[in-house]
Amino acid sequence: MGCPPVRPAAHHTEGVGAASDDSHTETSGRSVIRVRRSGPLSGSVRISGAKNSVLKLMAASVLAPGRFTLHNVPRIADVALMSELLEGMGATVAHGAAGSAPDVMTIDVPEVMVPEAPYDQVERMRASIVVLGPLLARFGEARVSVPGGDDFGHRPIDMHLRALEQLGATFTTSHGYIQGRAERLTGAQVLLEYPSVGATENLLMAAVRARGTTVIDNAAREPEIADLAAFLNAMGAEVDGAGSSTITVEGVESLHPVTHTVVPDRIEAATYLAAVGMAGGSIRLLGARADHMVMLLEKLGDMGLRVDDGGDVLVATASDRLRSVDVSTLPYPGVATDYKPLLVALLSVADGVGILTENVFAGRFRYIPELVRMGADIRVEGHHAVVRGVDALSGAPVRAPDIRAGAALVVAGLAAEGETVVADAEHVERGYQDLVGNLARLGADIS
Ligand code: UD1
Fold first, then answer.
1. Assigned architecture for domain 31-48+265-446
2. How far apart are CA 4 and CA 359, in angstroms?
3. For 222-233, what is each residue's pLDDT tens digit?
């Protein structure tokens, strides 16, 4: 196992705990997914636009007044929450309006807005904090509720604030709100302590309107950051190097609205890869990008899952029992932390012993007791999960603790004898457009 990267301070103080995906606490507890042992799977799934990109593009729209049009926007709960947040600020958002395709969103951004992300919104979706940078850039002020602890522990935003301060913003905190001000942001050399996705995005969206040049060092390199930069450049920004560790931004005086197509969701694609790995068969992922999942595909290849890149389609085939491997999650281009529950599910029925090491978020592995209830043999030691593959899982009632863990439990149910009932499935709906329908169309026994 290689050396883990330098981790944010919070990582060390947190002990166990923390999400592998953006999370919030509200659950209605009503939604349930039932799945029975299935396979082999066959057929095609169209991969939606990436949740973790579209939320940031929507936030970036506040940088310029006028009408934005986004294509490939998934119909998921988090997108609806971000729409609500923008509407609360004064924008008008239409997703799949009459006369347009269901994946098309228009955002009408007014001249005057209320630059605020209220408590209610931030509590329900932590990603709301990415409005901080663009609001400061356009209006010179922003008021954002301090993200609280959630189901998964504390997830700080110290790096976001420190980075924006280096561009000249000042922050005060009172009554649970961060109040940010900036007469005029000024470009600066900013070295991030850790390649935080959210901090890179907030900084990028602020820097595009700052006076002069900003250089972001140790920037996050995720494909969603490159997508945000492409969006900003189309708006008239001058961003260079996004997707690498050093991003250079020349501030510009004004930006304009654009039409943009959201990058495909690599985590959604990984979910269907895990499904076919679990249930066997051969499936086609339409619109998925192999070049955004290189490390994952290598690992899955080592496990015996064959993935052929046909340009605009990935063909995934699992004909035999998968083999165990060791995996470490890392910032991109490493194996994403969001894939982790899916990988643990795959390892739980693979041949041999696999060790999964979590390096991005302190690893609470909250879904692991649920997998153990399904007969998996998993031991957690600190931020390592030691997974001994069993011949078969056994269906059981389980609870989805968050989006990806919920999806992983559903996928695990494909290889479990009898029925698995995943409660709190509304978590899954936050990140997946029709996971159940898509799996059913691939031949899974699911409702
Ligand atoms: C985003 C993704 C999430 C993914 C994560 C890592 C969205 C909506 N969410 O989350 O699905 O799992 O990237 O790929 O895009 N940290 C600090 N201080 C900060 C900021 C972060 O200590 O100011 C720490 C976090 O606690 C964590 C690590 O840095 O340990 C990585 O977090 P970050 O990359 O910022 O993740 P998010 O942007 O929150």
1. Alpha-beta prism (3.65)
2. 6
3. 999 999 999 999
The verdict on the CB of residue 198 being under 6 Å from ligand 1 is: yes
CA distances from 309 to 47, 312, 313, 316, 435 (A): 14, 8, 6, 9, 22
Quote the CA–CA distance of 376 and 86 in Å, as a whole number.
43
- 202, 132 Cβ separation under 8 angstroms: yes
Distance between Cα 37 and ligand 1 center (Å):
34
Q: Return the CATH architecture of domain 51-261.
A: Alpha-beta prism (3.65)
Q: Which helix (H) or strand (E) holds 141?
A: strand 141-145
Active-site hit among 21, 22, 150, 424: 150
Amino acid occupying residue 411? V
Residue type, 1: M
Ligand 1 and 218: CB distance under 6 A: no
Distance from Cα 356 to the centre of ligand 1, integer Å? 19
Instruction: State whether the beta carbon of 438 lies less than 6 angstroms from ligand 1.
Output: no
How deeply is 333 buried, as exposed, middle or buried, from its count of CB atoms within 10 A (0-12, 13-18, 19+)?
Answer: middle
Q: What is the pLDDT of residues 128-149, one digit of tens each?
A: 999 999 999 999 999 999 987 5
